[in-house]
Specification:
With 181 residues, the chain is an alpha+beta fold. The strands form 3 sheets. The chain has a 4-stranded antiparallel β-sheet with strand order 5-6-7-8, with no helix packed on it. Strands 1-10-9 form a 3-stranded antiparallel β-sheet, with no helix packed on it. Helix content is 24%, strand content 31%. The N and C termini lie far apart (110 Å).
Length: 181
């Protein structure tokens, strides 16, 4: 008779065969779901922080007031100006330079001083061996008055977008030089 009681007790501890969830499975699913929810709560703000600047709309850029039209001559002159910009989440100010001149018909041109060879800063008429040219002191790149590359550099100097309003010259972003063929 003792065997029958042991058999009966063993049967009580056997798992149910009708696909019911055990307490261990319930706890595993519950704790796993809670952990995933908390992890998502911590990770999603980090992903948003990293991706948000990429999703911001790009603007055409704004024009910066640089110099009065009356101060521009036929020879290139160096003008410095500041550009307020947003670097990710941090506002900053970039100090920029432009070589501005006008031609015989009065059209205004503005060249970027950044050499297209390796990014040094070019100067106008700063090499006595090559008068009336832009010259790069780093590697000897030379450019004409309109920014055409003469030696070393593979491309002409970039130009700034220009707007003239109420006697002032406004400069925008740089673009490839289209005046040079």
């Amino acid at each position: 008779m003792e065997n029958n009681q042991n058999d009966h007790q063993e049967k009580e501890y056997l798992p149910n065969s009708n696909k019911e969830m055990s307490r261990r499975q319930f706890l595993t699913y519950t704790l796993g779901g809670a952990t995933a929810y908390m992890a998502a709560g911590a990770i999603l703000p980090m992903v948003r922080f990293a991706v948000d600047p990429i999703l911001q709309k790009k603007t055409d850029g704004e024009f910066i007031k640089v110099v009065e039209v009356s101060k521009i001559t036929n020879d290139p002159q160096e003008f410095k100006f500041e550009l307020k910009q947003q670097d990710g989440w941090y506002p900053s100010t970039a100090n920029l330079v432009a070589w501005i001149r006008k031609d015989e018909s009065g059209k205004i041109y503005a060249l970027s001083p950044i050499c297209k060879h390796l990014g040094c800063i070019v100067g106008w008429n700063n090499n006595k061996s090559y008068p009336d040219e832009y010259h790069c002191p780093c590697h000897g790149a030379r450019y004409t008055k309109v920014g055409k590359n003469l030696s070393v550099s593979p491309k002409p100097l970039d130009t700034y977008k220009i707007s003239v309003d109420n006697g002032w010259v406004y400069l925008g972003s740089t673009e490839p030089n289209t005046e040079v063929k």
